[in-house]
Amino acid sequence: MKKLWIVPTLAAAAIAAGCGSKPPQGQGQGQGQGAGWQTCTDQQGRVVDERQCDGRANGYRPGLFHWYYYPYGGRPYPIGYGVPLGGSYSNEPRQGAPTPSLVPGGAGAGGARTGVVRGGFGSTGSGTAAGS
After folding, report:
1. Residue-wise DSSP of 59-105
2. Which residues face 37 on adjacent strands?
3. Domains of the chain: total
4. CB-based burial of residue 103 (10 Å sphere; 0-12 exposed, 13-18 middle, 19+ buried)?
5. pLDDT in tens, 45-98
6. Is residue 124 part of a domain?
């Protein structure tokens, strides 16, 4: 019975620490990146190669592909993924918003991993004992 004083103390500490408070305005949801991003999507909202949205590219078909701008930060999604809710579509790219080819390590960047990954078990996965 004498430990009941701790409950109001803990509640006051949680309130003072900001438990339940709203984040400051202007801060993106995503992964703390702040600024939004844009990518090219098809009619079902799946990410496609950016060249599909480029009117100067061979095979460009107007109306089938659109730019999708997501204002809440994070990284652009890889090709084939559906885009998150909360963004907006347009026929022209938004000036100043990064695209997958401009984001370091993004889905279209040269540093992105491609191909098949093999292994992972070292010499123990070869079917023989590691010391043999």
Report:
1. T--TTT-EEEEETT-S-PPPTTPBPPTT-EEESSPPTT---TTTSTT
2. 70
3. 1
4. middle
5. 999 999 899 888 887 787 899 999 999 988 889 999 999 999 999 989 998 888
6. no
